[in-house]
Amino acid sequence: MLSVVPSPIVVRAPAKVNLHLGVGDLREDGYHDLTTVFQALSLSDDVQIAPAAALRVKVTGEGADEVPTDRGNLVWQAAVKLADLGGRAPLVEFAITKGIPVAGGMAGGSADAAAALVGLNDLWELGLGRTELSDIAAELGSDVPFSLHGGTALGRGRGEKLLPVLSRNTFHWVLALAKGGLSTPAVFRELDRLREVGDPPRLGSPEDLLQALASGESAQLAPLLGNDLQAAALSLKPDLRRTLRAGVGAGALAGIVSGSGPTCAFLCESEEAAVTVAAELAGAGVCRSVRTAHGPVPGARRIIGDN
Ligand code: C5P
Questions:
Q1: Catalytic residue at 16?
Q2: Is 191 left (phi over 0), alpha (psi -120 to 50) or beta?
Q3: Residue 72, φ and ψ in degrees, nearest 5
Q4: Is residue 9 within 8 Å of 121, Cβ to Cβ?
Q5: Per-residue pLDDT tens digits for 146-165
Q6: Which residues act catalytically here (predicted)?
Q7: What is the CA radius of gyration of the chain?
Q8: 9-166 architecture in CATH?
Q9: How many whole angstroms from 172 Cα to the centroid of ligand 1?
Q10: Closest CA to 147 of 192, 105, 112
Q11: Which residue among 31, 187, 228 has the greatest number of ligand 1 atoms within 8 angstroms of its CB, and so is best to mutate?
């Protein structure tokens, strides 16, 4: 008799870049109201999920040493939350393969959390719909709903209230990964400090950027990219100025700090242009390593074990 060995569940979840990140004033709950436009990129993490005798997290890939393997990891918190909801014990092992830079401003931890939600919903047959998963995602972190959603989306509130955005064509990016990470709360605090001592410019409405996305023209989109957190990231890591200059000098249409940084994202005219910019940046000694990516791509989705 044939015995059927169940294939493992593997969920792939994308990195994100904020094409527009407008940050409001500090709220009483310690968060800031955002108006942001997210794009999901082809750089991704894979999360394998299997039943186990105890809750365990293993991490491999670049930067794996810096990722917590206990309740400090959002996949652990996702498992505890969904197990509570399903009235069961969180007996699973996660094997995370990192492709997204750790503490890089690209929502790597959020991507893993979104992958855990999708995978556990299937493994435990919880039958949760996208809206329910998105509500749980928002409790785990501000960027987790977008990691589930993917594509291109307008984010409001803490970034968790999403509306899909029409985006024509594929955009080509070069990502310059920095030496060392930046802590997201520290970057938001630095922005609050800069706003106390001065008046750094604030982004206006993303309306023109949304139109450029609908047109699908990278040259139209490039000058409209903006990030209110960039001044704070540059204040904490002044070397990033050199990285941003080098990317544009190498032929990118524009460069911005991705989210809270320190990864810098460069929009390029084409895939070929991105390869050229990546090669030149890699040789310029202004970053730890370089990746090319494209977007938009889908949110967290099963790539193995999907019947
Ligand atoms: O939601 P998440 O846990 O990812 O946020 C991490 C930290 O980033 C928050 O504790 C807060 O300091 C800062 N943050 C913020 N405003 C947001 C999102 C995050 O101040 N909209």
A1: yes
A2: alpha
A3: -70, -15
A4: no
A5: 999 999 999 999 999 999 99
A6: 16, 143
A7: 19
A8: 2-Layer Sandwich (3.30)
A9: 28
A10: 112
A11: 31
Question: Contact 106/147 with Cβ under 8 angstroms?
Answer: no
Half-sphere exposure of 69 (CA within 13 A, CB side): 15
Alpha carbon 31 to its chain's center? 18
CA dist 7 and 27 (Å) reads 46
Residue 22 in tokens: 């407008």
CATH number for the segment(s) 171-295: 3.30.70.890
Residue 90, token pair as written in the block: 């969180």
Distance 140 CA to ligand 1 centre (A): 11
Unique residue bearing structure tokens 């999920």: 49
Instruction: Specify burial of residue 46 (Cβ count, 10 A radius: 0-12, 13-18, 19+).
Output: buried
Parts of the chain belonging to CATH 3.30.230.10: 9-166
Residue 255 has which token pair?
A: 């460069």
Give 304's strand partners. 10
Question: Which part of the chain has CATH 3.30.70.890?
Answer: 171-295
Stated pTM of the model: 0.96
The verdict on the CB of residue 24 being under 6 Å from ligand 1 is: no
Encoded amino acid at 194, one letter: L
Nearest alpha-carbon partner for 60 in 79, 47, 41, 71: 47
Ligand 1 near 72 CB (within 6 A): no
109 is in an annotated binding site: yes
Tens digits of residue pLDDT in 44-99:
999 999 999 999 999 999 899 999 999 999 999 999 999 999 999 999 999 999 99
Long-range contacts of 82-91 (CB under 8 A, 24+ apart): 82/117, 82/120, 82/121, 82/124, 82/126, 82/136, 83/124, 85/126, 85/128, 85/136, 86/124, 86/126, 88/124, 90/55, 91/51, 91/52, 91/53, 91/54, 91/55
